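Appendix B. Chain record.
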Amino acid sequence: MTAPLAGIRVLDLSRILAGPWCTQVLADLGAEVIKVERPGTGDDTRAWGPPFLKAKDGSDTADSAYFASTNRGKQSVTLDIASPEGQEIARGLAAKCDVFVENYKVGDMKRYGLDYESLAAINPRLIYCSVTGFGQTGPYRNRAGYDFMIQAMGGLMSITGERDELPGGGPQKAGVPIADLMTGMYGAVAILGALRERDTSGQGQYIDMALLDAQVAWLMNHNLNYFVSGNVPKRWGNAHPNLTPYQAFPTKDGNLILAIGNDSQFRKFCTVAGLAIAMEPRFVDNKSRLANRSALVAIIAEAMKTKTTADWMVALEAEGVPCGPINTIDQVFADPQVIHRGLRMDLPHSAAGTVPQVANPIRYSRTPLEYRSGPPVLGEHTEDVLKQDLGLDAGRIADLKRKGVL
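Structure tokens predicted for this chain:
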């Protein structure tokens, strides 16, 4: 079997999350990813702990769980790109790669001679992807961009959190750095598209990815709701702006998500719940239910308290009514479906022995993803890569180490 991106080589000068998430996707798909890190410290997220991976003797390693979550399948090369010799090595590696990913501030790569124009001159087929907070153009292009502030500026926090008029109301960020993650995903898609186009044109190109662009783009229905109605979307807590009942309800012993997506499901729910309201004019269709949301939610809330979460799950699933519990992370990985799909796995790690990972959700029928290695320790592959790719001998590598270039 051949991996989808077998033969594609990626030089990864990104760190933290958006860029590394992008390149981990490419590594999962079979690309060879060379991760360039600062000598001595490496990617900042290596130190973002505790928790840290445990060595075989039970002590902490130098690598955090955070770093391990986004860097599997890569080779780590330490390189000081601020030095002329480091820049020369980086250019030599870029000449042999298909993709170059970086997330430095606008203009930084040009100072190092590693900008797109410089690298395209020696490798016209190179796909070069820059990831920044605000993009390469516009009045904010020189600003640093971090996920939390992008969630705020890009509108996500205005629609996330409980309603202002309820206890606990107010804006909330997502529980994961979703602006970084989605930018990384869009970046991977952009790179795949550019590689496909290169098959026809024979030419590489530059990709300008911005966290703010990605954040605004994936607000999806909220954007269109605003464009079409002129009304500014607001926070709905666990409710849905376009559907009801579609939210969490307290049960006799916990909580349950009820996710009614159409009128047929609503009628089935009413039958199970013993509510003779399905055909009332105020609840007969979704438009009517939205207009009478408060009255409907009050009725359903009282009914939901009469049974346990497990009882509701059994009764509603039997009738095909979408519902689900609110699981904690430990409950997620104990769930029979998650276990069956093999989402938790272990990969080899040179310091820890093995490292737990979560499988990529992509499932191919002919070319299933093969995870070759866990996240690398800092500089684990420096000598191998420089010997094999650039022909440097042991003496030259030792000299570069003494100078602090590696």
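Further analysis of this model is presented in Appendix C.
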